[in-house]
Write a structure and sequence with these properties.
single chain; 8 helices
Amino acid sequence: MIFVFLAFAVKLPADWLLSLDTLIQKFTTIPADSVLAKIFETVAFFGSPAATLIISAGLVIYFIIKKERVTALWIAFTILGGDAIAFFVKEFIQRPRPSDIIGGDSGYSFPSGHVFGTTLLVLFLIYIVTPRIKNYQNRFIVNCLLWIWLFVIATSRIYLRAHYPSDIVGSLLLASSWWGFAQILYLKFYDQAYRVLYRMKLNKDSE
């Protein structure tokens, strides 16, 4: 609901939102040739949608190898479905990016693909990967690092002026909402999906 309200304000666009974005941007302006800009460009590269897809594909392969095919299917469905939703929202809202971008990003601004994809990936890692770390202290450290990574990615998109601050908030809201919905589907239909995949394996083995 909050995302819908924000998306509506972006689409208008609402004066109060433009003023808030402008105010925040005044405190996040850095020279294009600064060291910080170069660092954020590197961060943005590793947090790009392409990088997120590659890491997600690695997760899918890992769970297939572990014979957890329903989980692998869930990851693939959530990532690919989420990317499709984010693309649809971008095309519907059609918000231009800030005019003084550092790094040459193109396309529409709302929501941020970097932040959307990274949010989904971080949620997956925290929900289904780090719980497998037996040592509590190590698990806590890894979880903290993952949240910090998401924060750095989100911050970099603002400092590079590739997105307005409201784009980042919208991405976090959309990604967490979609992940929550996908998680509900996973928990509700896990047994049915497992039985279907098991029957498919039996049929394949009997051929």
